[in-house]
Amino acid sequence: PSDDIGRVLTVANDTPDQVIGAIFGRGRDILRLSEDAFLLRFQAPALPAGSSRKIRLLPEHVIRNTDLDVRVEEIVEPREVEVYVDRFLETEIPVQTFVDIQTAESYTQVGIAVVRPGTVKVTGPAMQIGEILVLQTDSLVRKGVRQDIVTKLALRLPPIPRMRTDVRTVDVHVDVQELAEYDITNVPIRVA
Fold first, then answer.
1. 75 vs 102: CA distance, rounded Å
2. Of 53, 10, 1, which Cα lies nearest the Cα of 162?
3. Threshold 0.70, pTM exceeds
4. What is the tens place of the pLDDT at every residue in 105-150?
């Protein structure tokens, strides 16, 4: 991680993926428009971490990506968005699995389930990322197991806007061995 990473700000809330706008132009040009003909982009004002501001969406925020003779007259919905700003955080968070293995008769699990990687790099808004103590995986439940288990489990990520992880799955290995019983004969015993 960079030394500057704690000073970088990020938008901490969800913002709309699409907006509805009133378009002006000739009918045939409007009918030929594709979904990516316009892009709405705005620069949020400089805000301190932990604050928010409502921003009114205007036709001036729209970038036109078409040669057709059309323009956005008005942003209909939403007319404004609220932007929450927070510090950008990058941290390592341990992974926790729920493993319930029941071996078959005369078999046993040796040790605990091994998870790789044991920690995951997580980035996102500091206030939300800082509250995560562990990342859990999907459950692994098996009965009558007679051999090692090597599988991938998906991470169960909390619903935090703008949170990113460097992996989406982890490898889990459970060592299962057969119990053996051997008779040893003719072992000399000395009594003192």
1. 59
2. 10
3. no
4. 989 999 999 999 999 999 999 888 988 999 999 999 999 999 999 9
